[in-house]
Specification:
It comes from Streptomyces sp. SID12501. By secondary structure, the chain is of the alpha/beta class. It has 36 helices and 16 strands.
Length: about 850
Amino acid sequence: MRAQEITFLKLVQGEKQFQVPLYQRTYSWGGDQLRRLWEDIGELVDQHLAGEPTSPHFLGSVVLAPGQIQAGGVQKWLVVDGQQRLTTLMLAFTALRDHLKETGDARGVDRVHRQILVNEFHEGADHYRLLPTQADRNAYTACVQSRADAGGSDNIGAAYRFFRGALAQRHEAGDEKWAATVETVLKDLLSIVEITAEPGDNVYRIFESINNTGVGLSQSDLLRNYLFMLLPKRGERIYQELWLPMQQSLGPKNLELLVWLDLVVRGHYKTKQSEIYREQQKRLHSLAGDEDALQREIEQLAQRASRFLRIIDPARESSPALRTVLERLTAWGGQTHYPLTLHLLDLLDTGRTTPDDAAQALGYVESYLVRRLICQTPTTNLNRIFMEAPKELETDRSAAEAVRRFLSGRRRRWPSDEELREAVRTKPFYWSGRPPQRSYILRRLEESYRASEPVDFAKASLSVEHVLPQRPAPAWFDLLAEETEPNQTPQELHDLLVHTLGNLTLTGDNAKLSNHPFERKQQILDSSALRMNLEISSAQRWGKAQILERADRLADRAVELWPCPIGGVKPAGEESPGWVELRAALVAMPSGTWTTYGDVAELIGSHPVPVGAYLSANTSVIGAYRVLTVEGRISPQFRWADGSDRPPPQELLTSEGVRFDSLGRAHPPQRLSAAELATLLGRDVAQPAVHDLLPQREDAEAAERFRAQLQENWPDAYSGVVAVLDFWRRQGGHVTYGRYEETSCFPTLDLGASRRPHLMWPVGIYPVSGTVEVVFQYLKTRSPFDDTEQRRELLNRLNKIDGIDLPEAKLELRPSFPVTVFAEHSDEICEVLDWFVGVAALDLARRD
């Protein structure tokens, strides 16, 4: 084998084709990997635009083996290893080409297409420079050919849509040279090691050896070995006295995190955790031969370890004020604030600040995080902001004032009081952040009442409750009908209110509250120990007016709890984050789907009218034509911009696979709801999870409650559902039950009983709303259904049953069908579940 380091352009140029062998898995990169790559590309682009010296970024290796050689054809290369990186970069180029087309750069379009993507003078399969596995091929060629179905629901389509959105976002910021510089970076500043096998080498053996290696050394392991290699005389003593205690107290993961934080706090804020060893080695290289200096370095790291322990275990902090705010940040969760927090503890322990000053500074950090979550401010660059903070803080003022001034910077987006109050009234808070963060905010709001006998939240088992239910009974809609605006339905008003903070509280009685009328909820909430619940129970009714009034009261408390940035007003002329989120949501929509102005309004906390006005004035927004009226029709106000040669929206949607009836209404199952749009954006849309299901496993009381709700609401389907659940148990499964507003039911398999739990469930049954969700969103994280083809097979088998019509565009979501299908087709559903269990069992046997 031979190896050489080359640029991506040199790797792919020429009449050649890279073929991904069938023994390789399908394309599997997701959002995390794509975002990391895009951040690396963005750094190179910014450096290049600023005229800074730019070194190539090492992307990894690609192992190739010569394929069949055909006279007059292209040179074929088998991609033994590196197909994920290679496919990702090709998809980035397809998105770049299409972006250049949108911006009118015809020469750039032609250049990218011919230089990178295709073998211009060849036809058929030879036309493509990259030929993925059979399962990915159609999705990939759709992107290269710019077909209407490009950007589908699989990982290939998701990666293409990711890059389209990332390019559009920077273009909207007014960076005219951005796209051209991205092209330069992708072609010439990404370094790849090309490793080429010789003819006759056992390609599959090479693949196995690369992908079945043992556990490698961590970055901290490499640093430890390097340091103690440089300490031949003192190494054993320093290891016993300093390194080993630090390693034992932190554990492997936290030690690695500390070594990275040590670099960041020193000012190396661009260092990635995968580059810790290289950067530390570079920094320490000059100390080789000076054991005194090396010992001081390890002593400093050990001191930082003791401070880091106070961050992750605040009980170790001696100052009550500082311990309280560290406990709050621990309850908030996440590691984003760690660099700044560690820096503040450095200042404290070296006498450069006081405990109260450090506590106030961290209070500003909490406010910054909480306000951004409530206002649903995009999290782009949030990690980078906190990594830059130790180096950027002003040193001629108190730590608290320096932190507040730093976070108040214009581009750091600390929401004002005005923005916070508006967000509390309008934003779907229930889809913000992670569940523990939502509960934390409600807990802090409850604590602000300063009850004489406060609730012990450490012992209480509380969850978030919707007072106006997510799935309301008809009586709720009758109440909402009294408050609707002209041309607004009670359902639309419900959707705009239901997830806002004014409608949410904490309770330990979620199952009891369910979707009961407000009068029944009043009785239950009136016995609550929480002051916020007593306040709700004192209301005479619960509709729009009461929800907005409570939102305003909670906003007053939020403003007092979490201080505002310096200046405290919304920056003039700054675009609303809602429009940024709208554009991101439309980019995220797979081809073959549509949504409504109301769904988008619900997502961003707006109203259908301004959403419609914005899109009518900005039809060039990617995916604008996919937003239809509530009936599924093209809005009469929708017009392409002057000079556009694009076909009418209905024709374009039809070419993608959206079906329309004779009255021009789009097919309802292909519609994406606000919750589904939120899911595509990576929001944690609260649904039953593993920890919610396990306590209810085969719970007799929950089972009886589920059957009672099903019998009451869907009596014709009752016997069919019960028969299917009995069949599931005979196949070795069990039944678990949710504990939310209706007693949902999940036929569950535990395929990891001998090792660790590996739960899997194909559907969730909701006995009040009468829907059956097919949980592709969860299955895609569980083998073997992490393979798109297996999920597609499940979809196809279900779609053969009358009454089920699941769109392929929702293979990463939770499409549903009516529970009434069980009335006449329970046997057919059992056949599908039998297949599901067989596939899962076969995969388990293969992995064992």
